[in-house]
Design a protein that fits this description.
Belongs to the FPG family. About 25% of the residues lie in helices and about 20% in strands. It is α+β, with helices and mostly antiparallel strands and about 270 residues long. It has two domains: about 5-125, MutM-like, N-terminal (N-terminal domain of MutM-like DNA repair proteins), CATH 3.20.190.10; about 140-265, Helicase, Ruva Protein, domain 3 (Orthogonal Bundle). The strands form three sheets. The protein has a four-stranded antiparallel sheet. A hairpin with a 2-residue loop joins β6 and β7 (about 100-105). α6 crosses α7 (about 190-210). It is globular and about 55 Å long.
Length: about 270
Amino acid sequence: MPELPEMENYRQRLGQHIINVPITGVTVNREKSINLETEAFTQALVGARVVFVERRAKHILFHLHDGRRLLLHLMLGGLLFYGTEEERPDRNTQVEITFGDHILYFMGLRLGYLHLLSVKEAEAAMGKLGPEPLDRRMTLERFTGMLKGRRGALKSLLVNQQFIAGIGNCYADEIAFEARLLPSALVQNLTQDSIARLYEAIRKVLTDATEIGGYMEMPFMNGDTVTGTYNDRCMVYDREGEPCLRGGGTVVKIELSGRKVFYCPDCQHEQ
């Protein structure tokens, strides 16, 4: 599932190409991916312009010139591609939005969605999300305060979108590795030193991953050499049985609260 770095990468690239370009066409191949009937959705968008692209957690909000919002959540397996009809990817598309001679293709929306909402509806949809981990107001002091009274496994807390927004399976494991903490470490037992390492790990991993385009499996457009380059930088995620890149251990995979977890038992600890 695309997480904060992937969606932030998309936000930056979308902002470079579609701002104030009139929407000239809409194709809906899967009506379940949208929240209106196809005709109403199409009529509402044709002629509209995107004036700002915002990311919130794992969502993208396309701000339209009339004040409405297009809310995108790619969920599991969703992808974006921007290009001409000739550059069209060899994949099924659920929604296509045309900006002149270029098309924004929405793919893999089996569980994902693209909803047209009012400002009030969009705010309600985002209302239960926790704070952004890279927000300048997310200080160590604030983060430490957020942990007070929390219990349970570290990974379960990191992927809790109401606690902190934008972290999923991959980056929770990468953050725990960077902090030298087991994903199963109990939050209520963390020392102040462990909390400080965790805080710095969150900022470092998410910042580094965003700068190199996240782990998406295909480029955003032809000529894009940034999107997806974090694929080869993962330290533990999806590396079961491979040597730890920090020491002599071997990366293992377990299941924790129904989620797969990757870690190195040699260099990650309870504290």
